[in-house]
Design goal:
The chain contains 7 helices and 9 strands; from the N terminus they run H-E-E-E-H-E-H-E-E-H-E-H-E-H-E-H. It is α/β, with parallel strands linked by helices. Helix 4 links the parallel strand 6 (123-126) and strand 7. The chain has helices at 3-12, 67-75, 94-102, 138-141, 153-162, 180-193, 203-206; strands spanning 15-25, 35-41, 64-66, 80-84, 106-111, 123-126, 144-149, 170-175, 197-199. The structure holds iron/sulfur cluster.
Length: 210
């Protein structure tokens, strides 16, 4: 396929810049401890300074891959598929999730919500970022709000975001990994004083798995 055709396919969401895909244990949030197949899509311009997947940012460095190939592969491993990035909503997620749903797979997304919500999702993890706030619609449909805490000011941001989500949305505070020793005590105290929040840890990193 010539480059122009590939770009058109990516534009429609029929091909996606695939950074990596792997079968592992979901380490974070409500589904932690559950086996799932992860599809990491390249491309993100949110620009979090502490981002631990900066290699994902430049979509051009990840091969445009036909969604049918992605889905065929994913279906061999798990009935729960987590789409992450990068920022997956950079791209039209409708074709990918339709194909996953045809195989009766559970579709989960991890997103900053910075771009319009596309796709059909069984679980939406909204992890908003200060430098590019979520589009309004996603607050109504998010299943969990996961705020990454790098310093104490992030707790103020967390409350601002919690005020916007729907009433069923589960609220998580998660320490940013590189400063975990400093912020875990802060989060523990905060959650005990404000029990509507729960602690989320990146347990996959403690388990030394992807
Ligand atoms: S939104 Fe996610 S992928 Fe994008 S810069 Fe922030 S942490 Fe990294």
């Amino acid at each position: 396929m010539v480059e122009e055709e590939v770009l058109k396919e990516v534009d429609k969401g029929l091909m996606l810049p695939l950074m990596e895909e792997f079968y592992t244990i979901q380490g974070e949030g409500y589904h932690k401890g559950t086996a799932a197949y992860f599809i990491r899509v390249g491309g993100c311009d949110v620009g979090c300074h502490w981002c631990d997947v900066k290699e994902s940012w430049n979509a051009g460095t990840h091969p445009p891959t036909a969604i049918n190939d992605i889905v065929e592969n994913a279906a061999k491993y798990s009935n729960t598929i987590v789409v992450t990035g990068g920022e997956p909503l950079t791209w039209n997620m409708d074709p990918l999730t339709s194909a996953l749903k045809e195989k009766k797979l559970n579709t989960h997304i991890e997103t900053s919500g910075a771009y319009p919500l596309t796709g059909t999702w069984d679980w939406i993890c909204l992890s908003p970022k200060k430098n590019k706030l979520p589009e309004e619609r996603i607050y109504d449909v998010a299943h969990e709000l996961k705020v990454i805490v790098y310093n104490k000011h992030d707790l103020i941001f967390a409350e601002e975001q919690a005020a916007k989500v729907n009433g069923d949305c589960i609220l998580y505070l998660q320490p940013e990994w590189s400063v975990r020793d400093k912020v875990v005590p802060l989060i523990v105290d905060y959650v005990m004083a404000n029990p509507k929040w729960k602690v989320s840890l990146q347990t996959h990193k403690y388990l030394n798995i992807p």
